[in-house]
Structures are given as C-alpha cells and as structure tokens.
Amino acid sequence: MSASSDNHIQTNVDHATGSHATGVADSGRWSTRRIAVYALFVALAMALSFVEFPIIPGIAWLKYDPSGIVCLIAGFAFGPSAAAIVSVLGFVPHLFMDPWGTLMAVLVALALSVPAAFIYRRNRSRKGALIGLIVGAVVALVVAILGNLVVTPIYAHMTVAQVAALIVPALLPFNLLKFAIHGVVTFLIYKPISNLLDR
C-alpha cells in the first residue's frame, strides 16, 4: 500500500472519529503544525487582550476584552491543555504592567475555558459545546467574585467589605454579560474555525 493511501485512510479515520488533524499522534507528541497553531492562538489572545472597553453603563473601570473567546475556541479545537496554555500565555504582556490584574484575568480565563473544553472533549456536539460554555461560565463567575474579594483589596486599597458591596451592582452584572458575550460568539464561530483547522 502506498504512503498516499495510508494518508488517505488516516484522514478518513480522523474525520470519522471527530478528531482534529493537528499532526499530533495519540502519543501526544508535538508537531511543528500544532506548535504553530498554538502560537497563533496565543498571539491572537495577546492582541485581543489589549482591546478593552466598558460594557456596563456607569462602570467604566470594569472593561471587557474578547481574549477569552480565543481561549475557548482553542480549548474546543485542541482540548483543555490548549485552553490552559492560551489562557496563561495570552496575558503575559500584562504581567509587567498590572501583575495582580493579570493574575485575576488568568484565573478567570482558566476557569472559563478549561471546564468548557473538558466537557466538549467528552461530548463533541453543539449540545456538548453549550453545556460546556454554561458550566465554564458558572465556574468562572464564582472564581471572578471570590478572586475579587481576595485579590482586589491587596492592590486597590479597598477593604473586603467595600469590594463585597460592589458584587451586586457591578461585579455580577459585568461578569454575567462578559461570559454571555464570550459564550454566544464562541458558540457561533467555533465550528467553522474547527473545520478550517482540519484542512
């Protein structure tokens, strides 16, 4: 049997099992293509992390950035490890400017994308994606609220009570809207992007 026939059979197997053609064998070995795609996701997450704007009227200091969408799509396409890598490395440039804020951003991105990727990996369907996005949003919301109660008083010269007073009027609506935007956009575009990566 020729090498081209072997490649054709493997391609059919990949499509039949729903796996993505990342050039990585089941042993987990890294390929040049996989490294390049991961680097692309990280670079895109980095770029989008600087696109910040307020989404709640009257609360300009809480700013939305779309980098979490990239973390989710990476997780859906390549699994929880990809979600974790993009979530962490995507915020590296901010570490030198705002270390505490960066810590919060990384924790929330991990809490959102990693559980979603785990669930989608076990149920690779639109239903699995929807459940993953909802579970990830719930976990991330808890992490965001608790993280603000612990981290914000350290660097913002606020007491825990002052931060707690902001949960209902500011932190809760901001994070709910943020995760809703992440989830809707990811749900709409993850499949076309995954199909593109399979080519």
TrEMBL record:
Matches recorded under InterPro entries: ECF_trnsprt_substrate-spec, RibU
GO cellular component: plasma membrane
Locations listed in the record: Cell membrane
Membrane topology according to the record: Multi-pass membrane protein
Entry keyword Cell membrane: yes
Principal cellular location given in the protein's record: membrane
Gene3D superfamilies for this protein: 1.10.1760.20
Keywords: Cell membrane, Membrane, Transmembrane, Transmembrane helix, Transport
Sample GO molecular function, one term: riboflavin transmembrane transporter activity
Transmembrane regions: 35-62, 69-94, 100-120, 129-151, 163-190
Function: Probably a riboflavin-binding protein that interacts with the energy-coupling factor (ECF) ABC-transporter complex.
Family classification: Belongs to the prokaryotic riboflavin transporter (P-RFT) (TC 2.A.87) family.
The name this protein goes by in its record: Riboflavin transporter
Organism: Bifidobacterium callitrichos DSM 23973
